[in-house]
Amino acid sequence: MQLVDSHCHLPLIEGGEAGFEGVLARAAAAGVGHMLCVSVDLESYAGVRDLARAYQQISCSVGVHPNTDTPVREPGLEELVAEGGQDYVVAIGETGLDYFRSEGDLEWQRDRFRRHIRAAREVAKPLIIHCREAAADVIRVLREERAEEVGGVMHCFVEDWDTASAAMDLGFYISLSGIVTFKTAHALQAVSSRLPLERVLVETDAPWLAPVPKRGKQNEPAYVRHTAEFLATLRGESPETFARATTDNFHRLFRLPADKLGTPAL
């Protein structure tokens, strides 16, 4: 069974005694053939980029998280386009809106979001969208900026069916994290069971949100298998069918370059 972790933050994972190579080895043993390491700011982007350059089984994005309002380098359109055009970068983001952690006048957040969408359209690569308590504005901005021209993924999805449907109408995929395995996630589980299989991705968001039975521990790409197996059971599909479909979905959306295809090189 071959899986993809469609969203993780590898530099933030503490590898333990085996270090980073141990993280990769455990992922490979769990059947995880590829990992998308997602950028959250430009200061740490070089580390994300270097992993994608060094390892066949890792690709990366470039972008600045919507909550990063502490002193960081603000992403300019030209810089996003320059980096986003590189072969090892398969997406722009993570970007979006988060009204849970940020307060006050958030026009700066919406402006940053629009810049990411415009960069994605210019380099013709998909978007990685973060959305928290901002679903209506996320969908509105995506429509206004013609994000359907590139599509993308609603990462770590926890919204309702109407939001999922609106995003899919714009050509977006829905990525489910370990949250869906939590006992209290009844509403999300109901939405997840309705999603068309050809629009589903699976992720860890490691090092956070470890799924049951690893909840409370540091998350890592190997644990995406637990989320995938839970979702397959929830949806009445075999684990092999679910894994094959979500892996195919990932490759269809992110269009990995040739040097990122094939068996992981450990």
Keyword list:
266 residues; eight-stranded parallel sheet; 9 helices; 8 strands
- Can you tell me the number of structural domains? 1
Question: Could you tell me how far the N terminus lies from the C terminus, measured between alpha carbons in angstroms?
Answer: 18 Å
CATH architecture type: Alpha-Beta Barrel
Helix content: 25-40%
The rounded Rg comes to 17 Å
Supply the helix-strand structural class.
alpha/beta
The SSE string, one letter per element, is EHEHEHEHEHEHEHEHH
Give, in spatial order, the strands making up the sheet with the most strands: 1-2-3-4-5-6-7-8
CATH superfamily caption: Metal-dependent hydrolases
Shape: globular
What is this entry, summarized?
With 266 residues, the chain is of the alpha/beta class. The chain has helices at 19-29, 45-54, 77-84, 107-123, 135-144, 161-169, 186-194, 224-235, 239-254, and strands spanning 3-8, 32-37, 58-62, 89-98, 127-132, 152-154, 172-176, 200-202.
Structure write-up:
By secondary structure, the chain is of the alpha/beta class. The protein has one domain: Alpha-Beta Barrel (TIM Barrel). It has helices at 19-29, 45-54, 77-84, 107-123, 135-144, 161-169, 186-194, 224-235, 239-254; strands spanning 3-8, 32-37, 58-62, 89-98, 127-132, 152-154, 172-176, 200-202. An eight-stranded parallel β-sheet has the order 1-2-3-4-5-6-7-8. Strand 1, helix 1 and strand 2 form a beta-alpha-beta unit. Helix 3 packs parallel to helix 4 (107-123). The longest helix has 17 residues, at 107-123. It starts with a strand and ends in a 12-residue tail after the last helix.
